[in-house]
Amino acid sequence: MKMKRLTSMKKSTRRSFFTYAFVIIAFAVLQVMNSLGALSFSLQGMLVPICAYVVMAISLNLTVGILGELSLGHAGFMSVGAFTGVTTAMALQNVIPSAPLRLAAGMAVGAVFAAVVGFLIGIPVLRLKGDYLAIVTLAFGEIIKSIFTNLYVGVDGDGLHIRILSNITDLGEEGFMIVRGPMGMGGVAKISTFTAGFILVMISLAVVFNLVNSRAGRAIMSIRDNRIAAESIGLNITKYKMMAFVVSAALAGAAGALFTMNYSTMVASKFDFNTSILVLVFVVLGGLGNMLGSIIAAALLTILPEALRSFADYRMLVYAIVLILVMLATNNPTLRIWIDQITGKLTGKRKKEAA
Questions:
Q1: What is the per-residue pLDDT for 206?
Q2: Rg of the Cα trace of the chain?
C-alpha cells in the first residue's frame, strides 16, 4: 500500500520525498558512526561546515537553477548572516544562557538581515539580466566584504557600539569587542552543532520545495523558461524575481551564522569571490534545479580536499579528475532517466496489473 502511494506521487513530489529521506538517513548514519567513534576527528569538525555549504548550495540553486539568473555574490549574503548572527549571539550571552537558543536567535537574525540586504540589492540588480546581473552581484559581494573588513562592533553595559574605519576605545569596564575590523571576529563561542545544521538543511528544503511547488514557484520557473511569454500573460517579473532572490539571501544568511559559530575566529576575507564560485560549483555539478544533486555535490566536494590531503603531490590532479567525473555523471541525461525509472518504473506496471 505504501509503495503504491509512493509510485502514484507526482514526479516533483517524489523527488522531494527522496531528498528528505536521503538527508534524514545520512544524518542518522553519521550520528550513529559518530557515537561509535567511527568518524575521524577531522571529519567530525567538517560536519557543521558541510551543513552550511549544503544550505548555501540549496539557496543558490533557487536563484541559478529555478529563477535562471547567475549570481556571483552569494558569499556576501553569507557574510551578512555571519557577522550579524554572531553579534546577536554574543550580545545575548548574559540574557539567554542556553546555547541552542542563542544559536537559533543568531541564525534568525542573520537570515533577516541577509533578506533585507538581498531586497535592497535586488532593487537595482534584478532589473538587469545575463552577464550584467552576474557582474553587478559580484561587485556587491565585494562591497559587502569590504564593509565588514572595516567594521568595528563592541558591546558593554550601554549596549552595542558600531563604527566604520575607526576602532572603539570607549567601552565600559565589562565591555568587549565582537568585530575588530580587518582582524575579524575573535572569541566567538563555538555553539554550532551538527543537529542544528541538520535542522537548518531540512528547513531550507521545506522552504524551497514549498516555494517551487506553489503558484509563485511556477511563475518563477516560467520567467526562467521564457521571460517574454511570462510578461505577455501579465506576470509581475520584478516581484517574482525579488521573491526568489530574497528567500535565497535569507537562507544564505542563516547558513553564514551557523558556519561562523563553529569557529572561534572568523575574518571577512573568508566570504570572498572564491567562496561564491565554490558554491556555484556545487550547484552546477549537482545539476541546475536539482536539490538532491546540490546536497551530494556540496558534501562530497567539501570532504574531498581533506580526504586527498595525504596525496600531497597529486591531490589537485585527483580533485580535478573527480570534479569532471561528477559533472559528467550528474548532468548525464541517460543517468537522470535511469534514476527516474528507479523511482517511478513501478507505476506503469501496477497500472497494467490493475487493468
A1: 94
A2: 22
Q: What is the per-residue pLDDT for 208?
A: 93
Least Cα distance to 281 among 26, 126, 53 occurs for 53
pTM: 0.84
Q: What are the grid coordinates assigned to 114, written together?
A: 541577509
C-alpha–C-alpha distance, residues 344 and 155, integer Å: 57
For the stretch 280-297, pLDDT in tens is 888 888 888 889 989 998
d(CA 255, CA 259): 6
Predicted local distance difference test score (pLDDT) of residue 332: 60
Distances (CA, A) of 39 to 50, 141, 231: 14, 35, 52
Angstrom distance (rounded) from CA 256 to CA 83: 8
Backbone angles phi, psi at 176, to 5 degrees: -150, 155
pLDDT tens track for 3-24: 455 455 566 677 888 889 999 9
Strand ranges of the sheet holding 176-180, from the earlier edge strand across to the other edge: 159-164, 151-156, 176-180
Q: Which residues of the chain have pLDDT under 70?
A: 1-12, 169-170, 172, 310-316, 318-319, 322-323, 326-355
